[in-house]
Write a structure and sequence with these properties.
The complex is a heterodimer of chains A (about 140) and B (about 400). With about 140 residues, chain A is an alpha+beta fold. Chain A is built from three helices and eight strands, in the order βαββαββββαβ. Classes of the chains: A alpha+beta (about 140), B alpha+beta (about 400).
Chain lengths: ~140, ~400
């Protein structure tokens, strides 16, 4: 079965200068789409990737990453809406490049579909009451 | 058919008043007809919840020992600049005020995460606020420095005072340039990438009383979750704006100055707001009851989003350069559908004001009136209408002689 998942990789300082995601492609036959990468010498590295491939390969790839010391987080947990702060104005709707925010024409409430989110962060500062939060 | 505010208040006290919101009245009037609806319904409630920059609060902090004179000195609330140009212990803070060390747009676009609007929200929420004052010292007010926490419960008075709120209609903003721009109407993507608007349309207070037949100085209202009053017409009040055949202005027009005791308000309805690249502001909840004194007044409240058109204005060049140019006129019904067609292009739309919250405001006010805890007031004077000839003038800029 083919799976496609968006995940966040946290690279500890000691791994930042090693090639790692290369092995996901070469050894585990996974297709990668890098959505965001922040690799700075002597600091924790971060990469947001979409991984596509056979479930068994995906599982093996994840096992490899974990054993190497990379911490993995699912993307959906990263950008979150603070519902106490959201006023449902809708300023986010046209800013989001992946249409993760949707206006319900009946209730006039804005829904946030985390599975569409690519954690680009555009909504964070575009949100007037600052209801969108990033938890990397 | 005609009713007086006094008669309506009698019904409210008995718990017999018929109160509906400005959305419900549309259907009621369609079913019953204007005549019967005007007889049956006593009050129509409105609501709006959007960023309103011309908002602020003033308060009295009490006298310290030894005394200090704020007037003529400098004062900060959570590092945000407050205005200390009144007497010894009165302070004013505006929604757009910023800390001196905020980078503003030096790092473009600025984030404006904390400003005067946020101070007002925190104050109303009952949080302690850091007050820092420097003064010059006098014989009767010798102290020159004061650093203290203040809390709304200890203030002698805390008053929300907004010189311009509740705009009756407004521009829908678009960007005709090829780069993204950051405006008070939000982020506007290049080449007509989106349109932002800010109104509650058919629920909006002044759009339901387009000729200001009932709203005036002293009109009691829902303000920031508590009770407030119309203090005056708002600044830039422009009753002379063009109107359609139903009397609905087709451009920005009437405005209101609002006042109320901040101590009984609620931070849920006064929200510090950050407009990227533009500044800090305050999102204000306002709801105004319209007494149905006549069929004519009832008919005005039946306005629908389809009846209200907004001018589409370019914020990349026309707006900043005072070029009066309307690219298109679009109805709020279309704007609220999520996209509108401009020059053959489907442009996605977004709102900066929350319609779902506006409904809650109108319904809260409805409940207050139904439960007899909110009586209507007779305005001392109506705000200026068309007959006043008032309009908004641009600046008459003149060189200063040497």
């Amino acid at each position: 079965m083919i799976v496609s998942k968006k995940i966040v990789l946290h690279f500890p300082v000691r791994l930042v200068d090693r090639s790692i995601v290369y092995h996901l492609i070469k050894d585990y036959d996974l297709e990668l789409n890098i959505m965001k990468a922040s690799i700075i010498p002597d600091a924790e590295g971060l990469m947001v990737i979409e991984v596509r491939g056979e479930q068994t390969n995906y599982d093996k790839g994840v096992k490899y990453l974990t054993e190497t010391g990379v911490r993995i987080q699912s993307l959906a947990q990263n950008v979150m809406r603070n519902d106490d702060k959201c006023t449902h104005c809708g300023a986010c709707v046209t800013v989001c490049p992946t249409k993760a925010f949707k206006l319900d024409l009946e209730t006039r409430l804005i829904s946030f579909d985390a599975s569409k989110c690519i954690a680009c962060g555009l909504c964070l500062k575009a949100c007037p009451p600052r209801a969108m939060e990033l938890h990397f | 058919m005609s009713k007086t505010i006094e008669e309506i208040n009698k019904k409210i006290k008995k718990g017999e008043a018929v109160v509906v919101n400005a959305e419900e009245i549309i259907e009621i009037a369609r079913e019953k007809g204007i005549k019967k609806a005007a007889r049956d319904v006593d009050v129509v409630t409105t609501g709006t919840f959007g960023p309103m920059c011309s908002s602020g609060a003033y308060f009295n902090i009490g006298h310290s020992n030894p005394r200090i004179k704020l007037g003529g000195g400098k004062a900060y609330l959570n590092d945000v600049n407050a205005y200390a140009g009144f007497a010894a212990t009165d302070l004013l803070i505006g929604a757009n005020a910023l800390p001196d060390d905020d980078p503003r747009n030096k790092i473009y676009p600025g984030e404006f995460n904390y400003g005067g609007g946020h101070v007002i929200e925190d104050l109303v929420a009952g949080k302690d606020i850091r007050l820092s004052v420097t003064a010059y010292g006098t014989d009767c007010y010798p102290r020159k420095k004061l650093e203290t926490l203040i809390n709304i419960k200890d203030l002698n008075e805390a008053v929300l005072f907004n010189p311009r709120n509740a705009y009756q209609n407004y521009n829908a903003a678009i960007n005709m340039s090829s780069k993204v721009i950051y405006t008070y109407m939000g982020i506007l993507k290049p080449n007509m990438g989106n349109i932002n608007f800010s109104t509650s349309g058919q629920l909006s207070p002044l759009l339901n009383d387009p000729y200001y037949r009932t709203i005036g100085i002293g009109t009691k209202i829902f303000l920031g979750g508590g009770i407030g009053y119309v203090a005056w017409n708002g600044t830039q009040h422009n009753p002379s704006a063009p109107r359609n055949e139903k009397g609905v202005p087709t451009r920005g027009s009437g405005t209101l100055a609002l006042i109320g005791d901040l101590k009984q308000m609620n931070s849920y309805w006064l929200r510090g707001t950050s407009m990227m690249g533009y500044g800090a502001t305050l999102t204000v909840g306002v709801g105004i009851p319209i007494p149905i004194l006549s069929e004519e007044i009832l008919e005005y409240t039946t306005v629908t989003d389809a009846d209200i058109v907004a001018p589409v204005v370019d914020y990349s060049s026309d707006y900043p350069n005072m070029v009066s140019n309307t690219l298109a006129e679009v109805s709020y019904a279309d704007l609220k559908s999520g996209k509108v067609e401009i020059d053959g292009k489907q442009v996605p739309t977004a709102s900066l004001s929350s319609y779902s919250r506006a409904i809650i405001i109108a319904d809260t006010l409805k409940d207050w009136i139904k439960n007899g805890r909110f009586l209507l007031t007779e305005p001392a004077e109506l705000i200026p209408g068309i007959e006043s000839g008032l309009n908004t003038k641009p600046m008459n800029e003149r060189p200063i002689p040497d």
